Amino acid sequence: MRVVFMGPPGAGKGTQAQLVSTALGVPHISTGDLFRANVGGGTALGIEAKRYMDAGEYVPDSVTNEMVRDRIANADCAAGFLLDGYPRTVEQVAELDAMLAESGQQIDRVVELTVVTDEVVGRLLLRAQTSGRSDDTEEVIRRRLEVYAEQTAPLTAVYRDRGLLVQVDGMGEIDEVSARVLAALR
Fold it and tell me: Catalytic residue at 36?
């Protein structure tokens, strides 16, 4: 099964993606982990990405796309994978479609974790306090959520039109949310 996980910051995507990938027996592929692995491994893509990251700029789609392409070509992805943090733009959706089409594959399901904004703000403020991220003020967090909504709406529309999108309530205990996600995938 090839699954894309979506949801705003603080929705629990990372936690749920790890649990669901284990339950499905497919690798969890996080773009953040891909960046760290490529930079840490000194790959050509990692060196290029690091130049942008060190300058405080976004890593361009071309670099991100190639990292994803390389990762999903690994043997452990033959039976499927769970993408977390990719695609983020309509252009990346098209690129992912093209990557998968080369091997006769496609995305099977897109899971969007839905959450109550005020609850997510509370989660992120708590995370900011416990992790020492003093730059994560309520105003900054709310702006990040607005940006996510603006940038993600076109993606959810694409996947909804294809009949691939399932929205899952991301509120509640971790195990409850996992059960809802797995039920939506089965």
Answer: no
